[in-house]
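Issue 218. Parser rejects a valid record. Input:
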Amino acid sequence: MTLFLILVIAAIVLGFIGVVAEGLFYLLVIGIAVFVAALIYLGLHMRRSGRRRPLR
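Output the parser choked on:
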């Protein structure tokens, strides 16, 4: 979960810098890509942690 939060924070920072700084639009694109990667990571993590063995 820590990795997910770090990726989301990095995406926000990159996106903000990409919007504010002139000529650094590619940082916004990278920020969006990092955010999508964080969402995919969270989805995979939630799916994996949902498979618990039933107690006998």
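Fixed in the parser; the record now loads. Residues 4 and 39 are 8 Å apart (CA to CA).
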